[in-house]
Amino acid sequence: MNAMRVMLIKSLRILAAAMTALRRNVMRSVLTTLGIVIGVGAVIAMMEIGNGSSNAIQKTIASMGANTLMIFPGAAASGGISFGAGSTMTLTPQDSDAIIKECPSVRATAPVIRSKNAPVIFGSKNWVPSEIDGTTPEFLEVREWPVAEGATFDDRDVRNAARVCVVGQTLVRELFQGQSPIGEEVRLQNVSLRVVGVLNKKGASMGGRDQDDILIAPWTTIKFRVSGATTANTVTVAPAAGTGTATQRGALYPGSAAGIYAARSAIQTKNSPMPVRMITVDQIIVSATSAAEAKDATAEITGLLHDRHHLAEGEVDDFKIIDMAEIASVMSATTVMMTRLLLAVAMISLVVGGVGIMNIMLVSVTERTKEIGLRMAVGARGADILRQFLTESVVLCLAGGAMGIALGRGSSYLVSKFLHWPTLPSLGAIIASVLVSASVGIIFGFYPAWKASRLDPIEALRYE
Amino acid sequence: MNLIELRDIRKTFYLGEVVLPVLKGISLDIAKGEMVALTGASGSGKSTLMNTLGCLDRPTSGDYALDGEEVSRLSNDARARMRNLKMGFVFQNFNLLPRTTAHMQVMMPLLYGAEYISQKEARTRAEAMLVRVGLADRMDHQPSQLSGGQQQRVALARALINRPPLLLADEPTGNLDSQTTREVLALFKQLNEQDGITILIVTHDPKVATSCRRVIRMADGLIEADEITVGGAL
Predict the structure, then answer these.
(1) What are residue B85's phi and psi, to 5 degrees?
(2) Residue ranges making up the domain that contains B65
(3) pLDDT tens, residue by residue, A405-432
(4) Are A61 and A379 a contacting pair, CB within 8 Å?
(5) What percent of chain A clears pLDDT 90, i.e. is strictly above it?
(6) What ipTM is given for this predicted complex?
(7) Fewest CB within 10 angstroms: A442, B13, B106, B189, which?
(8) How many domains does chain B have?
(9) How close is the nearest chain A Cα to the Cα of B57, in Å?
């Protein structure tokens, strides 16, 4: 206990002596620390800005529905000529049902039919939402998107092509001026739809698109009543090796859906064993049970769709699966890499700051040779001198570190305030900076301090 | 009882090929409470003797007992400890720290090896020491605000803060005018007589030398004369 006290008093005295020595030359001390201030400031600012961006990206990813896979129709090819992605409609709502039934790694799926952008009219207001989707109630499950008010439509609405819809916050704002739209009727291409639910606010997507600018309705409603232009209400037989296509006007209502099957001749059946796909969708969105299962889900879906679409071994897929998690990870990897790069540059400036400290400490040792001699004459051991000079450089570095933290936090605040970049305060960065600046002080202060401790008192006292 | 006992102290410097004997066998006893002047021409070896006595340097051979303890073969750290506890130094050019108050100057030696003294006690002791050398009203002055004599007093207070039995003064009056010299010497004498501190003054100045009871004159690495003067006459 007593030994502890003695240690404490001694440390405090050494600290006080170091402070006195540094105060003797305030301007020089401040300029010496400038390198550390800038270095630590840069590290902190980089960390906060970097963390902010990756956090923002992660939030966006989460808002798009984590673990989401998107299945798009693939490219049609005829006689060796590819028509590019989306040139044929190969996905059906039945594909969606089959996926959820047969793929264990899939949590939910929903077919999506995109309607062309058309004005939604309520009273005297109108607004063109950026997205009008026909889908199933599972859509919201896949997107992990709860309903803020009211309820979503249900499976019966889908079967009946009920005239109902759910709207996003942007529509509520634009059409209803913030009043509850539940129970109101809006018109979409002369079809009257009753609003049954309002979605939660979701914010912008990775691409910066407003995700709340959306109207969703049962896909049957969109397909048969509203009639999306992207997928004309036609029944398509896949153009299999130029054996001819059969198109037929589909019935307007699902009640007579049975009638839309094209009659197939015997030759057709022989030539193309493919079942006729009656109703196609623009995409199927799938949610894997977890991010780790996304790869398994992709494989399972690929296998399943191969079977369902009767694709022979080695034949080009007529669909394309996009893993959102993959896109997201690429995006966050880019941010992480940029952050690390900037961090490396900031670290270099810390090292430069450390060299500056070493330089000044060496000058200081030479300049104070006489003082060192005197201290030795009154009983300082080499270790005492070493400790004292080391304390000085560590105090310099820590003071620089503290100022650097303030500078870094200040600049990241300014960046978020005026440039509106997302930043995130990072306690880890602050702790790391303190440790790094103390280490810089010890590493770069050691050589000068060691040099001071090795002086011969007689020589040092005589030094002019 | 003798505070200092030197037996056949020799110091030889080796400058490459050249062998330079500086002290050629010095034996000397200084009793507690003595006030001794050490004189001699330049190159007579008095500085080297002073460094040896001050535990700043080790003799090549010979024995040196300080306050009953053999110190000639101690390690660097042990000699630092001896310097801290057993002696105080006063220099010709005062050797004060720049831009540091007198009070802080005096407390400086307490940083090394006086951990058992509380900060408050250290402060009180430094104040008492400054009062003792007559600088009660100059405690917060920096060297640049003090006259030469005052600076030397600060140095003296610093030398004595650890209450050492021995004071080594290397040309303490070399940078002072005659009036201040007299004052500083009077202070030395007072400390010697009232506090019983043994004082060894290295000097060129015969006036300073004769103010001491005992004068040791060195020449060519040996003690040429060691005489008791009438003493005390300033």
Answers:
(1) -95, -35
(2) 2-101+167-228
(3) 999 999 999 988 888 888 888 888 888 8
(4) no
(5) 25
(6) 0.93
(7) B13
(8) 1
(9) 8
